[in-house]
Specification:
Elements: E1 9-13, H1 18-29, E2 33-38, H2 41-53, E3 63-67, H3 73-82, E4 92-95, H4 110-138, E5 141-146, H5 159-175, E6 185-192, H6 198-211, H7 215-224, H8 234-244, E7 256-259
Parallel strand pairs: 1-2, 1-4, 2-3, 4-5, 5-6, 6-7
Helix pairs in contact: 1-8, 4-5, 6-7
Length: 268
């Protein structure tokens, strides 16, 4: 299927590895010009090289790497400048930030909460604010916010993430149903469950050290709780993202799309 987005410009955050990279790769395969952003320059350049070397990457589609902290004003300015403008030139924006650390809410001070809210709520809002009017003027725009399955099924030790990401979810729910929708701008949240990424490997290692079990034991126990009996892959997550960015997905708006292999036990 031709998703009809070749030649568009996309900003993909946290794209040096994991789910962000999966999204960037999928969009690039569709002929989208991608600006990938992450803080680690070396890993980011390796990601850009991998995208360009992909045999399915169309000739002529640009891949620009910007090593910056997207949670800062300077970092956002650098990302916006890469496409030649102040951010209004992006047709697609994929917001993504590493989740805050787990823990006991009693141990988190105000600074911990501010940091979590800044990265996982306020930064995406700033990106949306800067780009949506340009999208509306051109009659096409796609905002995809990578949040977490914890938005639907909160996890007790992830209070910082539960709170910050739920705040973003509420914001998107309102703005996605504004006048922007009639101008071809859609906003959806993509909620990952357990995907085989470096972050998951770290989480498994932490669980193993706390329980005295091996990493493989923890891994198999978690897989057993997923009806699909496996973890997801960044490539399939990226494919979902690319479809939500497509011309064909223009009637999907304001939704929380859960990708978790069937782990969420609810009906709605």
């Amino acid at each position: 299927m031709d998703l009809g987005i070749a030649g568009k410009w996309a900003l993909v955050c946290g794209a040096s590895k994991g789910l962000g990279l999966g999204c960037a790769q999928a969009l690039a395969r569709e002929g989208v010009n991608v600006v990938i952003v992450a803080r680690g320059a070396e890993v980011l350049e390796q990601a850009a090289a991998a995208i360009k070397a992909d045999p399915l990457h169309p000739a002529g589609a640009q891949v620009l790497a910007v090593a910056a902290d997207i949670t800062t004003t300077a970092g956002r300015a650098a990302a916006f400048a890469a496409a030649g403008g102040p951010g209004t030139d992006f047709d697609i924006v994929v917001t993504n930030a590493g989740g805050p650390p787990p823990g006991d809410f009693r141990d988190w001070d105000r600074d911990a909460w501010i940091k979590a809210v800044d990265a996982n709520m306020l930064t995406p809002i700033e990106l949306i604010k800067t780009t949506v009017d340009g999208m509306a003027a051109r009659g096409f725009g796609r905002i995809i916010s990578i949040t977490s399955s914890a938005v639907k099924a909160p996890i007790d030790i992830l209070g910082l993430s539960n709170g910050a990401r739920s705040g973003l979810t509420g914001f998107v729910a309102g703005v996605s149903r504004s006048a922007l929708a009639a101008k071809g701008v859609t906003m959806n949240n993509l909620l990952p469950g357990k995907f085989d990424t470096d972050r998951l490997k770290t989480t498994l290692g932490t669980a193993a050290s706390k329980t005295g079990k091996s990493v493989d034991e923890i891994r198999q126990a978690q897989i057993a709780q997923i009806p699909a009996r496996r973890f997801g892959t960044p490539a399939e997550f990226g494919a979902i993202c690319a479809f939500l960015c497509s011309q064909q997905a223009g009637y999907i708006n304001g939704q929380n799309v859960l990708a978790d292999g069937g782990a969420y036990p609810g009906t709605y």
